Amino acid sequence: MRIALVGDRSPSVRSHTRIPLLMEALRERDGIALDPYWIPTTDVAGLDAFDGIWILPGSPYRDEAGAVEAARVAREEQIPLLGTCAGFQHMLLEFARHVCGLDVAHAENEPGARDFLLTPLACSLAGHENLVRLTPGTLIEQIMGTPATMEAYVCSYGLNESYTQTLAAGGLVFSGHAADDGAVRAAELPGHPFFLGTLFQPELAGDGRRPHPVISAFAAAVARHAGHGQTTYAGTP
C-alpha cells in the first residue's frame, strides 16, 4: 500500500522526522503496513498510482502548484487524502480554485496578490495547543469519538473566514472549529473515500509511538482503497 508524502522533506521540520515512528506504529498497533514515498512539490507526476496521498507541513513549499495538484489528483481520482497544516491550507486552495472557480491566493506564497484565501492568523499558533470542537456527525467527529479534542499547531496562516460560505456551497464541510473564536480548524469532503484536512498537526500528538486517530483513519482508508478489506477506523478510542 503505497502512500505519497507530498512535501519538501527537511530534517528541520518536526512532522517530517515523525514519519518513520508513525509508520512503525501503524504496523505494530493497527496492523497496517504503509509504504511511504517522499514526493517533492516540484515533481508530483504520477500521483494517481498511489493508494493514498498525505500533503505534509513545511511551507512555504518550493512549488505551490505541486501541492495544489496533489490535492486535485486525490479529489478527482477518489484517492484518500490527508492534509495537515500547510497541506490543509493547500487543499482549501485547490478546492477554491478548481471547484468554486475563485481567483484567490495564499498570502505566504503571493503576498502581492489581490484576494487571499489563506491569511496570517491574528495570533500565530506555532508551538501552541488549542481545543478544537468537532461538528456532530462529521467524519472527524466519528474518528475521534468525542465532541472536542486538544491539538498541537505549528502554523501562522489560516482560512480567510469571508470565504467559508462559498466553499461550503461548493460542497466542503467545515468540521472542526477553534473553541475560543470559532475559526476553522478542519475540513472534509462528504462522498469522497477520505478527504480530510486539519490546520492542527496530528502527527505531533504524543511521542509518535501511538498514531493519532486521524492518522489511523487515513491509513485504514488507504487500506480500503488498496483492496485490503480494512473496514474500521483502527486506533479510534
Would you mind describing this structure in some detail?
The protein is an alpha/beta fold and 237 residues long. It has six helices and twelve strands. It has a nine-stranded mixed beta sheet with strand order 2-1-3-4-12-11-10-7-8. Helix 2 packs across helix 3 (86-98). Mean pLDDT is 93; it is low at 229-237.
Query: Averaged pLDDT, please?
Result: 93
**% residues in beta strands:** 15-25%
Sketch the major β-sheet: 9 strands, mixed
In which range does the helix fraction lie?
25-40%
The helix count comes to 6
Unreliable stretches? 229-237
N- and C-termini, Cα separation: 24 Å
Number of separate strands:
12
SSE inventory with pairings:
Elements: E1 2-6, H1 14-30, E2 35-39, E3 52-55, H2 64-77, E4 81-84, H3 86-98, E5 105-106, E6 116-120, E7 129-134, H4 139-144, E8 148-152, E9 157-159, H5 164-169, E10 173-178, E11 184-188, E12 195-198, H6 213-225
Parallel strand pairs: 1-2, 1-3, 3-4, 4-12, 5-6
Antiparallel strand pairs: 6-9, 7-8, 7-10, 10-11, 11-12
Helix pairs in contact: 2-3
